[in-house]
Amino acid sequence: MIRAVLWILAAILLGGIVHLSTVLAVPQTATQDAYARLAPLTPVNAIVPLAPPTAKDAVMPFMDPSFASAVCRYDLTRGSLKLIAPVSQAYTSVTFYTRKSIAYYAINDRAAGRHSIELDLMTPEQHAAVPEDEDVTAADRLIIESPSTMGLIVLRALAPEPGLMAMARQALAGATCSIQPVQ
Length: 183
Description:
This protein is α+β, with helices and mostly antiparallel strands and 183 residues long.
């Protein structure tokens, strides 16, 4: 009896180890992550609107059809990035992801408190090289440190009613994502 219980416990322990290692390894070995899917569709350091999702075809899984979406695939090797995203009338959010699809920062229009979301994205090394300006406070200039030099910025604007989707797309069409040269 004790021998059977020990075999069952050993099997459960081994199954748990295999399950945990598989769950941790799959994201690292996935070849069709968000960055890989968007690479052929988007140039680097430019905002590109994403096609509205349909039941049979969506660029990314789990896209909400109530949101207009746009993406900026960034590369910070040539300098920091300046992002300006006008806010829509309903709701606008900006989410930052590393090359391996790990979200590291998000902001929405309510947190920005302005008519547009403006920020600088840079690596910690680029941030350390920024000269301190006494006239510019932290509230005036939002600086986000990216843990990697490459990644994705996803912009979403809510269309609370289907008839307002054009308004949400228009808000995202005014967004810019451009490299600021190293000085």
